[in-house]
Design brief:
Layout lengths: L1 H6 L65 H10 L4 H14 L2 H14 L4 H13 L3 H14 L4 H14 L6 H17 L6 H13 L3 H11 L7 H14 L2 H4 L2 H29 L16 H35 L12 H22 L33 H15 L4 H12 L3 H15 L4 H13 L3 H14 L4 H13 L3 H14 L4 H18 L3 H14 L4 H12 L7 H13 L4 H18 L3 H18 L13 H16 L33 H5 L23
Helix pairs in contact: 2-3, 3-4, 4-5, 5-6, 6-7, 7-8, 9-10, 10-11, 11-14, 13-14, 14-15, 15-16, 17-18, 18-19, 19-20, 20-21, 21-22, 22-23, 23-24, 23-25, 24-25, 25-26, 25-27, 26-27, 27-28
Length: about 725
């Protein structure tokens, strides 16, 4: 059973099992709304419509609570719910219920499973069959409708639904054929543009023939002739066969038939007139022309009508063949068009990106619109007005424009449902056309398919903030933090959102709460303490509170070098004459702490730099210098160069070159090149993560680097400036 749910797929590349997700922005009206679409031959819906992106609820019956459950059901049920991300535990539960043939257990297991993995069309079929075997035909139909709301691209599920109706409806009732035709119309509107949708079209055509509606069958064949599908050539052959096996007036529409008949009769008359002139010249004198019955359609005329009917369709076929050729190698590269929890290999991911690039480029080529950069995360910008989506119709041609691009995205999101990049890309594509549609994609991804992946949620929050909905942005981040508690970047995003919204008190409160909650985790506590101190210092203009936060954090983590460095920078960034004592006190505290030797040297160097830059007494500078030299000797620091400028000239030249190189990497090119001998002052408010883009906080606290504090150069005081110690 597990294998069937996962591996079974439609010829259309339809999903088999899916990670509880893809509900969404589906491309068609669900069957429940079919009766409201069209009345004649089922017209297509007015626009792309999808189910509510919130998690759907399964139909519920009274029998669910009846009967004793099998012996091992509770054990397997608990295992699945304790680890809901483990697909195997779910399939074990479903297989057990199927083996036991217990309808209540099977129903309960399937409902729970499909809430998490709604893309598994094979299990929707199993659920419908389960209800049908129990003679619950209405429930079986509801199950199919629920499944098609979630995966409208599933050719197999549409066919299963049609067969269910054919097996349960009374076809003697006049409304039954009308209803089935409407289901077919919704099916080809939803999944008919899929490259592997041939079986669905064929079933529709054959059903119309069985109903004796040869014109309807020809009309459906006309429509599929414009669709690039895998078996495109067979549809043209079937049309020719259909036309040759029946009278043209029984196959072609009344308008087309009358037009072709008049044209062919006129042509036939002209041919006969010319032929009559030739025959009259050869006729013996006195013999009259034989009478020709008026108003009769000969077989010759019928054949001419058939030939003319195929002329225009042959052009459509040739155009469609060209479209198929363009897409063939892209389609051939897609090896797993259905959903599976197993990761896709890089080649498959690249194949989907390449196919999407090409299809979007085709659309932009036709509409003359600039191609958006779909591989980058959404950035700040205004909404771009665009025409409404175009839906497929009989006159829409082969490409189907925007609708075809959306179909391809939906197919991609079946196979790649667990990959954030494709959801973000689809949302970016839709954002320029409709903010609401883009939002619906985020909701599908975050609330169903990628509940435990933070990046897509943060993209969604940024999207909402850009479009002015701060309430929704807050809700998204709060929900994410509840799902993934303890994730530092989420709390920082929440604090930053409030700060940008002008709610500084709320931003500060969020960081204070994080500091208080992380006291049992010293590293995380230090991280949040530094963030809070920076906010208070740079935005709140309250250095005393910032100092207190860092000092309290040092009580818990005296060995955290980043706390010492930030506290030192806070002190040196204040009034230089009022801060001298605090700076030296900070250095003294750091030298007494259990820090690494190179960190102590770094802090001592910074203290010496401060003394040299701002001290009013040379004696103070020399005292600090002597202390630093002593520390170097004790900790085995870098060796001292020759005193009073007696250092080897070649080494000195090399040292100066290295120093100049380091500085040139930091100084803007427009500034004059001035070698410096001290490291640039660190910026307490600067976040190293900003260099990797918004959200790249991991490098800040996961790697023991000091570059983010500005201490990047080695100490390079000219030793000849001071007397020998």
């Amino acid at each position: 059973m597990a294998a069937e749910g996962c591996e079974e797929m439609s010829g259309n590349g339809e999903l088999t099992e899916s990670s509880a997700m893809e509900e969404s922005e589906v491309l068609v009206l669900p069957p429940t709304e079919m009766e409201e679409t069209s009345e004649e031959n089922g017209s297509a819906p007015e626009a792309l419509v999808g189910p509510d992106p919130a998690p759907f609820s399964m139909p519920h019956t009274a029998e669910d609570e009846e009967g004793e459950l099998p012996a091992d059901f509770e054990r397997l049920w608990k295992a699945a719910h304790d680890n809901p991300q483990d697909f195997t535990t779910w399939t074990d539960l479903l297989q057990y219920c199927e083996q036991e043939s217990h309808i209540t257990a099977s129903r309960r297991a399937l409902e729970a499973f499909l809430l998490r993995y709604p893309l598994c069309y094979g299990y929707w079929k199993k659920y419908a069959d389960l209800e049908r075997r129990a003679s619950n035909n209405d429930k079986a139909e509801e199950v199919c409708i629920q499944g098609l709301q979630v995966i409208p691209l599933s050719v197999d599920l549409w066919i299963h639904y049609v067969n269910l109706l054919l097996g349960t409806l009374d076809m003697n009732l006049s409304e039954s054929p009308v209803r089935i035709r409407r289901v077919f119309e919704d099916a080809v509107t939803a999944a008919g543009l899929d490259f592997h949708s041939d079986r669905l079209w064929d079933l529709y055509i054959e059903w119309e023939k069985e109903q004796g509606n040869m014109k309807n069958a020809a009309s459906v064949l006309d429509r599929v002739l414009k669709v690039p599908t895998q078996l495109y050539n067979t549809h043209y052959d079937k049309f020719k066969e259909h036309l040759n096996n029946h009278e043209p007036k029984d196959v072609l529409s009344q308008e087309e038939y009358e037009e072709l008949r008049a044209s062919c009769r006129q042509s036939q008359k002209a041919e006969r007139a010319e032929q009559a002139q030739e025959e009259e010249a050869e006729r013996p004198p006195g013999e009259e022309e034989p009478a020709t019955p008026e108003g009769t359609d000969t077989e010759e005329l019928m054949q001419k009508i058939r030939e003319q009917a195929l002329v225009g369709r042959d052009r459509v076929y040739q155009d469609n063949e060209g479209e198929v050729r363009k897409r063939w190698h892209y389609e051939d590269a897609i090896k797993r068009p259905y959903f599976h929890v197993k990761p896709l290999d890089r080649l498959q991911i690249r194949s989907w990106h390449t196919y999407l690039d090409w299809e979007v480029a085709q659309l932009n080529k036709d509409t003359k619109e600039p191609t958006p950069d779909l591989n980058e995360a959404a950035t700040e910008g205004s909404e771009v007005a665009a025409p409404p989506p175009q839906e497929p119709s009989e006159d829409s041609g082969v490409a189907c424009d925007d609708y075809r691009v959306r179909i391809l995205f939906e197919r991609c999101l079946i196979a790649c449902a667990l990959y954030e990049e494709f959801w973000i890309r689809y949302s970016q594509y839709l954002e320029a056309k409709s903010v609401d549609e883009a939002r619906a994609v985020y909701k599908r991804a975050c609330e169903i398919h990628l509940t435990n992946k933070p990046n897509i949620h943060m993209h969604w929050a940024t999207f909402e903030e850009r479009h002015g909905d701060l309430t929704e942005a807050r809700r998204v981040l709060v929900a994410l933090e509840k799902t993934l508690p303890g994730l530092a970047v989420v709390r920082l995003r929440r604090a930053a959102l409030e700060r940008r919204a002008g709610q500084l008190d709320q931003s500060e409160a969020l960081l204070q709460e994080a500091v208080a909650e992380s006291k049992e985790k010293p590293t995380l506590h230090a991280f949040f303490s530094i963030k809070l101190a920076r906010l208070l210092l740079k935005v709140g203009r309250n250095p005393s509170r910032a100092r207190m936060i860092l000092q309290e954090a040092l009580v818990i983590s005296p060995d955290n070098d980043k706390l010492h460095l930030n506290l030192l920078e806070l002190e040196v960034s204040g009034d230089p004459w009022a801060s001298a004592e605090a700076v030296q006190e900070c250095v003294t505290r750091a030298l007494a702490a259990p820090l690494a030797p190179h960190t102590k040297i770094l802090l001592s160097q910074r203290g010496l730099q401060f003394a040299e830059d701002y001290s009013n007494s040379i004696q103070t500078v020399l005292t600090v210098y002597e202390g630093h030299q002593k520390l170097l000797r004790e900790l085995g620091g870098t060796k001292r160069g020759a005193e009073n400028g007696d250092e080897d000239s070649e080494k000195l030249s090399k040292s100066e070159d290295d120093s100049s190189t380091a500085v040139s990497e930091q100084v803007p090119p427009t500034m004059p090149h001035v070698p410096i001998t001290t490291p640039p002052p660190p910026v307490v408010g600067g976040d190293a993560s900003s260099q990797a883009g918004y959200g790249g906080y991991s490098s800040w606290y996961q790697q023991p680097q000091y570059g983010s504090y500005g201490y990047q150069n080695t100490w390079n005081y000219n030793q000849g400036y001071y007397p020998p110690s």
